[in-house]
């Protein structure tokens, strides 16, 4: 579940699979994909700092209802 939120976003928006991306906002990131982590982007990092480390980072807002639905499907 390390990059679960990022994995759901990349599944729903395939173009995000090939770019550094994170889920969150300029205030705080929930997670990032492995491409972004190569630049030092981490969970609980302010998004504005992450953008300094990785200027091409795409930050998407979280779809927490979607994550919740997917986790229920995965468990059942």
Automatic annotation (TrEMBL):
A GO term, aspect molecular function: DNA-directed DNA polymerase activity
Gene3D superfamilies: 3.40.1170.60
Domain of life per record: Eukaryota
Cellular component terms per the entry's GO annotation: nucleus
Any Pfam family matching the protein: IMS
GO biological process, one term: DNA repair
UniProt domain UmuC: residue ranges: 1-71
InterPro entries cross-referenced by the UniProt entry: DNA/RNA_pol_sf (IPR043502), DNA_polymerase-Y (IPR050116), UmuC (IPR001126)
Entry-linked PANTHER family: DNA POLYMERASE KAPPA, DNA REPAIR POLYMERASE UMUC / TRANSFERASE FAMILY MEMBER
Name of the protein in question: UmuC domain-containing protein
